[in-house]
Specification:
The chain is mainly alpha-helical. The protein has 22 helices and two strands. It has a domain of about 400 residues: MFS general substrate transporter like domains (Growth Hormone, Chain: A, Up-down Bundle), CATH 1.20.1250. Strands 1-2 form a two-stranded antiparallel ribbon. About 10% of the residues have low confidence.
């Protein structure tokens, strides 16, 4: 209590020219809201804001009363704010809503707030103080632009129900592809309501998962076997100059010995595949690796031309059947679309063998004189022994088929076998080769075209394999290691082609186009290598190498689209057998041309002419019997 018993007072709001002392619980005097007289209205009704009550307080206190004034006789027109001059405002422009006044904002006033003044509440839902929060604001006698006013709410007003908000759109990086968002028309036909139907979920492909698992289990062991096979058959390319010096073997004799390997190889392939189809892959591949490992190591004991010829013939007979046997083995496990990828990965082993084996062979050749042996003898011995250990691993871990695979259940193995058998039956029935003998294969014109195209490819391939080290050695005085390193460069590009191209041959037309393009690339690269200087010639050989293993896996996959059963086994063996004779023709012609002309490059022109014919034959191939 204050002195004198009077209750404490506090200063109230300005109500005009007088102040009212208001105590606790005292509501204060009622304010007058009726017009005071004609002087409170503007005499001209056309002036903006006419009909509104004027403030009776002094000018200095008008701001405090503006939030208590209410419009009267409103015509939908408003006045400007105090702090904005009228000259900078367009009289007829409508004000835009402020951002932040919509729903889902903190402090939002409900659905009715969206029908308020054009200038809504500020961001965050806070109300503006002053006349703009309740109605009109009159300036110092100057009119302002039109405003739209918020009608007062009725007692018990409730906003109308709102439609549910749509779900938030996912981030662009998390959105599924556009094609997966399309709804099939068969599901929404007759209904235009968005979201009336949703596309069915795509069922997982069990065969795709099984193919990936089988590739992971089988490819490491088979790839290692093919790497050692290719290394042991081609390592004499690095020893060519040393054999000529130490044993007196001429270029023509060297080319003949290199080619003799492929004669017995070709003769033994078809019987080898037929035996493997009967006794099983595990036993037969193990036998092949044991015999060729022993004979390859025995190449270290060659004494002259005759022994050189004999050892190459034995090596060809021992190694025969490995590549066609693996190709037949793939037909037990993989469908056509996966088999092309598997063959491409397998032939990648030839690139790895050349990239790693050529520099390694160059280092082994520098062991000349150790233990009284020549460097080439150490090379044959050291590169032949590892095949014996690899044969033991093949016998232990390689299953004969899906039914004996420890990583597959009985249902999964049956699914793989049924799918492969169904695909082969359909291809053989469409081509009319469901059963028969090799005579059936020889009557098929498409198979003959594929065999010829593969033969021309093999002639060019083995001409480069056996004579590229000699061509590079003729460019200057280079060490064996440098020659081996440069010889491996075209095989780097061959590895790139083997990985990139065959998996993309997913249609018959693409497969044919890739075969034709690969043969033409080899044609162009060999011309550049034959006529250009050392650097450009090496680039030309690298361009040729890019297509080494683009053509071969696609052609090896061709018989499985037309043959089945024993006919398929014989057709694969015949394709590889006739093609491998190109490995005899190519090196022999290269050696003969080198002795006749004295140039390492003269024999390349034979390969160029044959590649042109092979590309022409490949344009007639049909990788699907239905397209004939």
């Amino acid at each position: 209590m204050a002195a004198g018993g009077r209750p404490p007072v506090r200063r109230g709001r300005c109500l005009g020219r007088r102040r009212h002392r208001q105590g606790p619980g005292d509501p204060g005097p009622a304010r007058r809201r009726e017009p005071v007289g004609l002087g409170d209205r503007h005499p001209d009704p056309g002036v903006r804001g006419a009909g509104t009550r004027r403030c009776a307080a002094p000018r200095r206190s008008r701001r405090r009363l503006h939030h208590r004034l209410e419009p009267r006789d409103v015509r939908g027109r408003g006045v400007r704010r105090h702090h904005q001059p009228a000259a900078g405002r367009h009289p007829g422009r409508r004000r835009r809503t402020r951002r932040g006044g919509g729903p889902r904002r903190r402090g939002h006033r409900g659905q009715g707030a969206r029908r308020g003044p054009v200038r809504g509440p500020p961001s965050g839902g806070r109300r503006r103080r002053g006349a703009l929060a309740r109605g009109l604001h009159r300036g110092r006698g100057e009119p302002g632009p039109a405003r739209r006013l918020t009608p007062p709410r009725r007692p018990g007003y409730a906003p109308p129900p709102r439609a549910p908000a749509p779900p938030p759109r996912p981030h662009p990086q998390q959105r599924p592809p556009e094609h997966s968002l399309r709804t099939p028309m068969s599901l929404i036909r007759g209904s235009r309501t968005p979201g009336a139907a949703t596309p069915p979920a795509t069922p997982p492909d069990p065969l795709g998962e099984l193919d990936s698992r089988n590739l992971r289990r089988l490819m490491p062991l088979l790839l290692a076997a093919y790497i050692m096979s290719f290394l042991d058959r081609t390592n004499i390319g690095l020893a060519k100059e040393r054999l000529e010096v130490d044993l007196g073997i001429s270029a023509a004799a060297y080319g003949l010995g290199a080619g003799l390997f492929f004669l017995t190889y070709a003769v033994s392939e078809v019987p080898s595949n037929l035996i493997m189809h009967r006794v099983g892959a595990r036993w037969w591949i193990t036998r092949i690796m044991l015999t060729w490992g022993v004979i390859s190591a025995c190449m270290a004991f060659v004494q002259g031309e005759k022994s050189f010829y004999a050892m190459r013939l034995l090596l060809g007979a021992a190694e025969a059947g490995l590549l066609p046997g693996i190709l037949l083995y793939f037909t037990y496990w993989f469908r056509s679309e996966t088999r092309g990828k598997a063959i491409g990965l397998l032939l990648l082993g030839a690139s790895i063998a050349s990239v790693v084996g050529n520099p390694l062979g160059g280092l082994l050749l520098e062991m000349d004189g150790i233990g009284g042996w020549h460097g080439w003898q150490w090379m044959f011995l050291i590169e032949g022994i590892p095949c014996l250990f690899l044969a033991v691993a093949v016998f232990r871990y390689l299953p004969d088929g899906p039914a004996k695979a420890p990583w597959l259940t009985a249902e999964e193995a049956r699914l793989v076998q049924d799918e492969v058998a169904r695909e082969q039956r359909e291809g053989a029935a469409a081509a009319g080769n469901g059963s028969g003998t090799l005579r059936t294969v020889l009557r098929d014109k498409q198979m003959l075209l594929a065999i010829f195209a593969n033969w021309t490819h093999q002639v060019a391939l083995y001409s480069v394999v056996y004579f590229l080290p000699g061509i590079i050695g003729g460019w200057g005085h280079l060490s064996p290691f440098t020659i081996g390193l440069l010889t491996g460069l075209p095989w780097v590009t061959a590895a790139v082609g083997a990985v990139v191209v065959p998996p993309r041959a997913t249609t018959p037309r693409r497969s044919r186009n890739f075969v034709v393009a690969g043969l033409l690339m080899m044609f162009t690269g060999l011309i550049v290598g034959a006529v250009a200087g050392p650097v450009i010639a090496l680039l030309g050989f690298c361009f040729t190498g890019l297509a080494f293993f683009v053509v071969q896996p696609l052609l090896f996959n061709f018989p499985a689209t037309r043959l089945a059963g024993k006919t398929l086994a014989g057709g694969l063996a015949l394709l590889n057998t006739v093609g491998i004779t190109g490995g005899f023709v190519g090196p022999y012609l290269m050696g003969y041309a080198e002795d006749a002309t004295g140039s390492h490059l003269s024999g390349l022109w034979v390969s160029v002419a044959l590649l042109a014919l092979g590309a022409l034959a490949a344009t007639r191939l049909r990788f699907s019997p239905k397209s004939e």
